[in-house]
C-alpha cells in the first residue's frame, strides 16, 4: 500500500499504533504480530491463504512479481512448509528491484507516485529469514524460496531461459505498474498449465489502472473468468 490516500481515521490509527509500538521491542512484535497488524495486512494474509489453497494440487512455482518487504512471500513459504512440506517440486520465487518502483509509465500509471515508494525494504533481511526457515524445513537441501533482484522487464525473460523445468502454478502480479505486469504476463503465461491461477492485486482499481490495462492488452477479457474474493477490496484472480 502506498499510503498516499489515508483517511483521517486511518491516520489516527497509525499514530496510535506508533505510540503503542514505541513501548515494545521487535521480539515482542514478532511474537504477537496480530496485535499490531492493521485490517489491510490481515485481509491480505487471508486472501493469500485462500489463493494458496487453489494451487495445492498443481505442481510448480509460485511466482510473486512485487515482493516489497516479503510479507506475502514469506507467508507462501510458511503455507508451503506447513501444507506441503515434502513438495520438492514447489518453488516460491519473488521478483523485485528491492529498491522501489521502477519503470513508471507516464501514460498508463498514476501521476502521483514516484520511484521512492516501496524503497524502504531490505532484500538481505528477507534472505536471512528464508535461510532461518530453511533450518527447520523438511528436505531443506532442495531450495524452496528464492529472490530475483532487478527490473522485472529484464529479469523475468532472463529467468525463464535458465529454468527448463519451469511450470508456474500461480502468478501473483503485485508491482502495481503497467510495464512490469505486461512483461510478467507475456513471459510466464506460456509456462502455466490449465487450471493454474493468475492473481492481480489491483485489478479494476482506478488508483492503479496500469495492471488492468496490461491484462487487457495481453488477454482478451472475454476469454477469462475473472473473479474476486468477497472480503478483499481489489484483488482479482482467474484460472488459466
Ligand atoms: C505493492 S508492493 C508489493 C507488495 C507485496 N506483494 C506484499 O504483499 O507485501 C510493489 C512492489 O513492486 C516492486 N516493483 C514495481 N515495479 C517493479 C519492476 N519493474 N521490477 C521489479 N519490481 C518492481 C516495488 O519495488 C515494490 O516492492
Give a description of the structure.
It is a single chain. The chain is of the alpha/beta class and 240 residues long. It is 40% helix and 14% strand. The protein has nine helices and seven strands, in the order ααααβαβαβαβαβαββ. The chain has helices at residues 8-21, 26-31, 33-36, 39-53, 71-83, 123-135, 152-161, 178-188, 210-218; strands at 60-65, 90-96, 145-149, 168-173, 197-200, 227-228, 236-239. Strand 2 (90-96), helix 6 and strand 3 (145-149) form a beta-alpha-beta unit. It is globular and about 50 Å long. The chain binds S-adenosylmethionine. Residues 44, 64, 66-68, 71-72, 95-97, 100-103, 118, 151-153, 174-177, 180 line the site of S-adenosylmethionine.
Question: What small ligands are held by the chains?
Answer: S-adenosylmethionine
Q: In terms of per-residue confidence, which ranges show pLDDT below 50 for 5 or more consecutive residues?
A: none
**Biggest sheet, open or closed, and with what strands and sense?**
7 strands, mixed
Tell me the series of helices and strands, N- to C-terminal: HHHHEHEHEHEHEHEE
- The spatial strand order of the largest sheet comes to 3-2-1-4-5-7-6
Question: What is the CA-CA span between the terminal residues?
Answer: 27 Å
State the share of residues found in helices, binned by percent. Answer: 25-40%
- The CATH homologous superfamily of the largest domain is termed Vaccinia Virus protein VP39
β-strand percent reads: 5-15%
CATH architecture label name of the largest domain: 3-Layer(aba) Sandwich
Question: How many β-strands, per DSSP?
Answer: 7
Total tally of structural domains: 2
* CATH fold topology of the largest domain: Rossmann fold
Shape by Cα distribution: globular
- Just give the CATH class of the largest domain: Alpha Beta
Mean pLDDT: 95
Amino acid at each position: 500500500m502506498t499510503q498516499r490516500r489515508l483517511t483521517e481515521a486511518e491516520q489516527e490509527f497509525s499514530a496510535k499504533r506508533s505510540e503503542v509500538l514505541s513501548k515494545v521491542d521487535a521480539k515482542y512484535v514478532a511474537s504477537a504480530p496480530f496485535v499490531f497488524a492493521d485490517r489491510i495486512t490481515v485481509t491480505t494474509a487471508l486472501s493469500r491463504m485462500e489463493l494458496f489453497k487453489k494451487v495445492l494440487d498443481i505442481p510448480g512455482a509460485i511466482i510473486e512479481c512485487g515482493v516489497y518487504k516479503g510479507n506475502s512471500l514469506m507467508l507462501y513459504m510458511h503455507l508451503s512448509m506447513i501444507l506441503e512440506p515434502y513438495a520438492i517440486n514447489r518453488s516460491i520465487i519473488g521478483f523485485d528491484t528491492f529498491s522501489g518502483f521502477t519503470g513508471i509509465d507516464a501514460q498508463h500509471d498514476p501521476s502521483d507516485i514516484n520511484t521512492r515508494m516501496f524503497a524502504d525494504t531490505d532484500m538481505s533481511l528477507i534472505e536471512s529469514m528464508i535461510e532461518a526457515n530453511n533450518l527447520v524445513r523438511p528436505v531443506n537441501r532442495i531450495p524452496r524460496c528464492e529472490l530475483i533482484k532487478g527490473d522485472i522487464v529484464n529479469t523475468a525473460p532472463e529467468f525463464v531461459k535458465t529454468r527448463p523445468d519451469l511450470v508456474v502454478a500461480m502468478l501473483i502480479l503485485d508491482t502495481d505498474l503497467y510495464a512490469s505486469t505486461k512483461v510478467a504476463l507475456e513471459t510466464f503465461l506460456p509456462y502455466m498449465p490449465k487450471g493454474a491461477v493468475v492473481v492481480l492485486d489491483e485489478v479494476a482499481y482506478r488508483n492503479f489502472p496500469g495492471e488492468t490495462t496490461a491484462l487487457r492488452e495481453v488477454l482478451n477479457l472475454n476469454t477469462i473468468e475473472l473473479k474476486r474474493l468477497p472480503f478483499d477490496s481489489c484483488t482479482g484472480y482467474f484460472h488459466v
